[in-house]
Amino acid sequence: MRSLVIIALMVSAMSSLSLAATECNSTFFALPTASVDGELFFVSETSGPAFCRAKGFPKAVMTVLRDTQVELPGRLPGVDIHILDIASMAACDGACDMLLLVECIPHEQHECEWDARYNKGLNNTGRYNKGNMNLGNENFGNYNNGTKNVGNNNRGDNLFCHNLVQGEGACVLEMLRTPQTLRLKSDANPPAPASPPPPPAPVLAPGQFAPPPPSGQLVIDGAYCYDIGDKRSTCQVFLTTVLLLKNIWVTFQEDLRPDMSLKCIPAGLHARCEATLPADYGRGTVTAMGRTLSNQIIWADGAVRINPVPAPQLSA
């Protein structure tokens, strides 16, 4: 009898483990939106990676509303909202589908796995949910209670919004604008169709500084170098931008040496560029330029003096 009780406990424990989701470190954004100069857009299916990069995540897994042009008016009757392709910074209604949900995956992590009830995310109760803390079935988002809801914190069934309660009103445009809405600015000077693409990096004479940008669109927050021996230094440059950028070039300048340029990839609206250089550059200055998603070049405001700092201490 005792052995039967032990076996029953083991089976129960194994069943509980099989229903539990594996480790999940992703962030789920339901009905992701972007605001361009204040106008609100849904995000296109191909813009999922750019949306996640802007949030500081290197990878994305997308859930899409197929046949958006047909489906969306029925989901949001009377709501005037368009779909944005982030790469071109243009509306793509009729030529693209929108994202219902994007799973943004941290660096060196994998997308979340499905549990035994086909839930993806953390602390879901029910079946076929994507996101976190859903109670019910087939919800896409977070903190929903009911069935087939898309968004966050909905209470009911087949709701397509945020913070809706069944029978207590309909979704309006401003309910889709959330703290997670990606805030973008259109380029002040969009490129002319016939203009050739700009060069990949500036070519500056020694001591020549890049021209200043309009209104501080790219800012060097600080530049630091520390000695690593053998007449070499490791240098780090920290930058902030108000526009999403494809890439950034930083140029190290020293009076007696030719300029040295380094290309780096921003994470959202911030970037850290690191390079190992001859030690002389650690006593010079640094400038920066970036390329926007529409291939405009923006410049940091002049050159910034590099600050020497002690080398980091290695742990034993």
What topology emerges from the helices and strands here?
Elements: H1 2-19, E1 27-30, E2 33-36, E3 39-43, H2 48-54, E4 59-65, H3 68-75, E5 82-85, E6 90-91, E7 98-105, E8 125-127, E9 130-132, E10 135-137, E11 140-142, E12 145-147, E13 150-152, E14 155-157, E15 182-184, E16 218-229, E17 232-241, E18 245-254, E19 257-264, E20 270-278, E21 285-292, E22 297-299, E23 304-305, E24 307-308
Parallel strand pairs: 2-15, 3-5, 8-10, 9-11, 10-12, 11-13, 12-14, 16-24
Antiparallel strand pairs: 1-7, 2-3, 4-7, 5-6, 16-17, 17-20, 18-19, 18-21, 21-22, 21-23
Number of separate helices: 3
User: Ranges with pLDDT <50 over ≥5 residues?
Assistant: 1-21, 188-195
For the largest beta-sheet, the strand count, sense and barrel status come to:
5 strands, mixed
Mean pLDDT: 82
User: How many beta-strand elements?
Assistant: 24
Gross morphology is: elongated
Instruction: State the helicity in percent bands.
Output: 10-25%
Q: Could you give the distance between the termini?
A: 55 Å
In terms of DSSP E residues, the strand content is 35-45%
Secondary-structure class: mainly beta
* Sheet with most strands: strand arrangement: 6-5-3-2-15
Cα-based radius of gyration, to the nearest Å: 25 Å
Q: SSE order in H/E notation?
A: HEEEHEHEEEEEEEEEEEEEEEEEEEE
